[in-house]
Amino acid sequence: MKRILVTGGAGFIGSHLCERLVNEGHDVICLDNYFTGSKANVKALMGCGNFELVRHDVTSPYYAEVDQIYNLACPASPIHYQYNPIKTTKTSFLGALNMLGLAKRVRARILQASTSEVYGDPDQHPQTEAYWGHVNPIGLRSCYDEGKRCAESLFMDYHRQNGVDIRIVRIFNTYGPNMNIGDGRVISNFIVQALRGEELTIYGDGSQTRSFQYVSDLVEGMIRMMNCDGFTGPVNLGNPNEFTILELARQIRELVGSDSRIVFRPLPSDDPRQRQPDITLARRMLDGWQPRVPLREGLERTIAYFRTIV
């Protein structure tokens, strides 16, 4: 049993990670300020003796004796991270700084939940970890993109200068139960619109591509990375199966059983044209890790969850 701190633990991904760690018997502290997370996401864990929920903002230091730290705290959807871009940048930078300071003090291993957005609107396809990215540093998305890039830099410098035991994962589009109903992400948008009988809104012509991994596959990859000795990363965690946004909209409409029209709106600035991870490194370093849940199966589970809250 380990003592594990999860920042952003009441969020979409964090709640699934906490559940997995608690079920494995670890002593878990879940930190969240509830900006995008929710107590409802971890309600089932509240009665567990090895789970503790703490309201805290990672822009302020936090102190605890722990063995591992998963740093997930940061709004991750455009609607939320653009709501207060300065706060988003502060969360990425100060949150990383504070958690790295804690890891240094208590000699904990720490994992940074980075993002495929560090690649920006990529010139390389699919994206490997060696690719440095194509990011607009002054655009509307830069608070998130550059905040995560800066956090990666800080992690590597703490590792090189102070010997902190770090891990970096770059998370590609992930979906599943506990997604925020109003987060503006494409899968939750389409599901909610289809369930409500509203028009399905596509930004651009729908030819842009994304690769979608189910949340349980991501959690498995994160845990393997945390417990992998001698490998700091960064490593891509995502599903290499690529779909156009138009294909996704049609499949969700079919699975919901909706007759909603598909409508097209202007593409937001700096929206990536393509997203597809190269997961060769993850397969090699993380005991053959790769996504197991097909898109259709994952969408059916996610739609079932949204039926309970829409």
From TrEMBL:
<keyword id="KW-0520">NAD</keyword>
<keyword id="KW-0456">Lyase</keyword>
<comment type="similarity">
    <text>Belongs to the NAD(P)-dependent epimerase/dehydratase family. UDP-glucuronic acid decarboxylase subfamily.</text>
</comment>
<keyword id="KW-0812">Transmembrane</keyword>
<keyword id="KW-0333">Golgi apparatus</keyword>
<comment type="pathway">
    <text>Nucleotide-sugar biosynthesis; UDP-alpha-D-xylose biosynthesis; UDP-alpha-D-xylose from UDP-alpha-D-glucuronate: step 1/1.</text>
</comment>
<feature type="domain" description="NAD(P)-binding">
    <location>
        <begin position="5"/>
        <end position="301"/>
    </location>
</feature>
<dbReference type="InterPro" id="IPR016040">
    <property type="entry name" value="NAD(P)-bd_dom"/>
</dbReference>
<dbReference type="InterPro" id="IPR044516">
    <property type="entry name" value="UXS-like"/>
</dbReference>
<dbReference type="GO" id="GO:0070403">
    <property type="term" value="F:NAD+ binding"/>
</dbReference>
<dbReference type="Pfam" id="PF16363">
    <property type="entry name" value="GDP_Man_Dehyd"/>
</dbReference>
<keyword id="KW-1133">Transmembrane helix</keyword>
<dbReference type="GO" id="GO:0042732">
    <property type="term" value="P:D-xylose metabolic process"/>
</dbReference>
<dbReference type="GO" id="GO:0048040">
    <property type="term" value="F:UDP-glucuronate decarboxylase activity"/>
</dbReference>
<dbReference type="InterPro" id="IPR036291">
    <property type="entry name" value="NAD(P)-bd_dom_sf"/>
</dbReference>
<keyword id="KW-0963">Cytoplasm</keyword>
<protein>
    <recommendedName>
        <fullName>UDP-glucuronate decarboxylase</fullName>
        <ecNumber>4.1.1.35</ecNumber>
    </recommendedName>
</protein>
<keyword id="KW-0472">Membrane</keyword>
<keyword id="KW-0210">Decarboxylase</keyword>
<dbReference type="GO" id="GO:0005737">
    <property type="term" value="C:cytoplasm"/>
</dbReference>
<keyword id="KW-0735">Signal-anchor</keyword>
